[in-house]
Amino acid sequence: MSDKKEKISRTDDEWREVLSPAEFNVCREKGTERPFTGEYYNSHQKGTYLCKCCGEALFSSEHKYDSGCGWPSFFQPNMESVVAEHHDASHGMVRTEVTCARCDAHLGHVFTDGPQPTGLRYCINSASLDFDEESV
């Protein structure tokens, strides 16, 4: 039996039924929230950050750090297989977009100016995340 999860595909109307307008804009239309406004950018709780659209476990609080950019930042995903990377030349910049590998939700971007051990900064929109707090 494979651990690979089935790909999730829905129409825009189906996504609109389960996402708020702001979540739909970020996750399905590749929008972004304003810096320092998202629910999780300054969160220090222990737990797992999940994809807002499909519930995939994307990032751990153990890999979260304050990058000063105004969005939740992580130096690595839970597993490389849970995120996909895409060339993004929008808005007059060249960046690497990060999406959920399971449902293609736009999460944010990854940059090479992060801390060790990876040197990466996954700059992720809070609107694309849910949080599962660790029980104490």
What topology does this entry show?
Layout: H1 12-18, H2 21-29, E1 47-51, E2 57-60, E3 64-65, E4 73-74, E5 83-88, E6 95-100, E7 106-111, E8 121-124, E9 129-133
Detailed description of the structure:
It is built from 2 helices and 9 strands, in the order H-H-E-E-E-E-E-E-E-E-E. It has about 140 residues and is an alpha+beta fold. The model has no long low-confidence stretch (mean pLDDT about 95). The longest helix is centred in the N-terminal third of the chain and has 9 residues, at about 20-30. It has a 6-stranded antiparallel sheet. It starts with 11 loop residues before the first helix and ends with a strand.
Brief synopsis:
The chain is of the alpha+beta class and 136 residues long.
The helicity comes to 10-25%
Number of helical elements: 2
Q: How much beta, percentage-wise?
A: 25-35%
- Average pLDDT level: 93
Q: Strand pairing plus helix content: what structural class?
A: alpha+beta
Distance between the termini: 33 Å
Question: Which regions have little confidence, pLDDT < 50, spanning 5+ residues?
Answer: none
Quantity of strands, as a count: 9
Largest sheet features: 6 strands, antiparallel
Task: Give the helices and strands as they follow along the chain.
Answer: HHEEEEEEEEE
Q: What spatial order of strands do you see in the largest sheet?
A: 3-4-8-7-6-5
The gross shape turns out to be globular
Radius of gyration: 14 Å
User: Assembly type of the shown chains?
Assistant: single chain
